[in-house]
Amino acid sequence: MIRLIALITLLIPGFLAALGIKLMRDMTFGVLQPPFSHLWLQFLVGLLLFVAGLGFLGGFIFHRDRKRNKIQARFKQK
After folding, report:
1. pTM summary value
2. What pLDDT sits at residue 78?
3. Is there a contact between 51 and 35 (Cβ–Cβ < 8 Å)?
4. Are 49 and 22 in contact (CB under 8 A)?
5. 39-67 vs 2-28: helix crossing angle, rounded to 10
6. Signed CA dihedral, 15, 61, 44, 28: sign only
7. In terms of Cα–Cα distance, which of 48, 43, 47, 21 is closest to 32?
8. b/e map of 31-59 (b: 16 or more CB within 10 Å)?
9. DSSP code of 25?
10. 33 phi/psi in degrees, rounded to 5
11. Is there a contact between 33 and 26 (Cβ–Cβ < 8 Å)?
């Protein structure tokens, strides 16, 4: 059960990052999605979703590797 919760915790930011990429791609091709009124707003929301999702996934992997002692010496806690 715990592994299922962890998987869902990782899938949600992954989907948000993918949605962010889609919104930025649609702005590049000039496709305006319904909740947005301007293309630049759509791009900014897409960029925010992408950075937040990628940051969460990267932080999760970094935290897991730090617990397992699989990181370089400069990243270890003092």
Report:
1. 0.84
2. 73
3. no
4. no
5. 150
6. negative
7. 43
8. eeeeebeebeebbebbeebbeebbebeee
9. H
10. -85, 150
11. yes
Cβ-contact 76, 66 below 8 angstroms: yes
Question: Looking at residue 69, what is its pLDDT?
Answer: 87
Two structure tokens written together for 14: 């992954």
Would you state the structure tokens that stand for residue 65, as one six-digit string? Answer: 């590797």
pLDDT of residue 2: 87
Residue 71 phi/psi, 5-degree rounding, is -120, 165
> Contact 48/16 with Cβ under 8 angstroms?
no
CA distance 39 to 24: 9
Q: Give me the helices (H) in the chain, please.
A: 2-28, 39-67
Per-residue pLDDT of the chain (78 residues; tens, 9 = 90+): 888 998 998 899 999 999 999 999 999 999 999 999 999 999 999 999 999 999 999 999 999 899 998 888 888 887
